[in-house]
């Protein structure tokens, strides 16, 4: 718990101010979401491999994306694209009403599902992403969308899964020139704000 507390305090130093986000991360055993061999690095503020060429995001990025998407509220319905290890999903499940999470690599999805069950998180729905559809259109629209893999340009169909007043946090851009964006749906359309430079694995698929 001491290393976890140290991580939380460094997130605070880096500008994370939402106490609910910090508490959710303090409450979540990140070491369970990575292989035993690298579990000793689970509370370093870095990304780590989770197999299949994918990574669990850096804790700072998880905290930042969550804080910006929540904006101090508790969204009823949230969509996560890229379940991966299931760590970000777990944080969201503590801060939102219901979380819908999609992942295209089946073994990662199964492993995350098992962990969520073990941690008794009952407000998460999982789905295997197939074909060229992004997200979970027939379950939307969502009050919040968090995308943890980067498309080169933001797919149109993600905008339409955002409810009015909803907030989407998504990285996009070329491999080594990605930016994190906040997309807000207003009554008259969408606004797009650039947040900071980031590095994510690519979002796969699309037509
Ligand atoms: N949120 C995860 C981060 C995993 S990395 C965590 O906390 O561990 C991003 C994930 O997005 C990868 O597992 C990758 O397989 C998945 N992904 C990539 N393209 C996708 C798509 N079109 N639909 C769903 N998942 C996708």
Could you characterize what this model shows?
The protein has a 7-stranded mixed beta sheet with strand order 5-4-3-6-7-8-9, covered by helices on one side. It has a domain at 60-198: Vaccinia Virus protein VP39 (Rossmann fold). The protein is of the alpha/beta class. It has helices at residues 2-13, 19-26, 59-70, 87-93, 106-118, 156-159, and strands at 48-51, 54-56, 77-81, 98-103, 124-128, 142-147, 162-172, 178-185, 190-198. α1 runs antiparallel to α2. Helices cover 27% and strands 28% of the residues. β7 (162-172) and β8 (178-185) form a beta hairpin. S-adenosyl-L-homocysteine is lined by residues 50, 54-57, 81-82, 84-85, 87-88, 102-105, 108, 129, 134, 148-149, 201, 203-205.
Keywords:
single chain, 207 residues, alpha/beta, Rossmann fold, two-stranded antiparallel ribbon, 9 strands, binds S-adenosyl-L-homocysteine
Gist?
This protein is an alpha/beta fold. The protein has helices spanning 2-13, 19-26, 59-70, 87-93, 106-118, 156-159; strands at residues 48-51, 54-56, 77-81, 98-103, 124-128, 142-147, 162-172, 178-185, 190-198. The strands form two sheets. It has a seven-stranded mixed beta sheet, with helices on one face.
Give the helix/strand layout.
Elements: H1 2-13, H2 19-26, E1 48-51, E2 54-56, H3 59-70, E3 77-81, H4 87-93, E4 98-103, H5 106-118, E5 124-128, E6 142-147, H6 156-159, E7 162-172, E8 178-185, E9 190-198
Parallel strand pairs: 3-4, 3-6, 4-5, 6-7
Antiparallel strand pairs: 1-2, 7-8, 8-9
Helix pairs in contact: 1-2
The structure holds S-adenosyl-L-homocysteine.
């Amino acid at each position: 718990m001491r290393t976890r507390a140290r991580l939380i305090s460094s997130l605070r130093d880096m500008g994370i101010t939402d106490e609910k986000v910090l508490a959710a991360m303090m409450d979540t055993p990140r070491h369970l979401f990575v292989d035993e061999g690298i579990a000793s690095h689970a509370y370093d503020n870095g990304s780590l491999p989770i197999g299949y060429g994918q990574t669990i995001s850096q804790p700072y990025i998880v905290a930042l994306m969550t804080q910006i998407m929540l904006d101090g509220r508790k969204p009823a319905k949230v969509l996560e694209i890229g379940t991966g290890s299931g760590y970000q999903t777990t944080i969201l499940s503590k801060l939102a009403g219901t979380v819908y999470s999609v992942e295209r690599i089946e073994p990662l999805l199964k492993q995350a599902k098992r962990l969520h069950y073990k941690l008794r998180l009952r407000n998460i729905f999982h789905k295997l992403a197939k074909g060229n559809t992004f997200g979970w259109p027939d379950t939307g629209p969502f009050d919040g969308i968090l995308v943890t893999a980067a498309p080169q340009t933001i797919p149109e169909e993600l905008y339409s899964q955002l409810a009015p007043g909803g907030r989407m946090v998504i990285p996009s851009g070329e491999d080594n020139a990605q930016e994190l964006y906040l997309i807000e749906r207003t009554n008259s359309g969408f606004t797009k704000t650039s947040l900071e430079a980031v590095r994510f694995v690519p979002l796969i698929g699309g037509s």
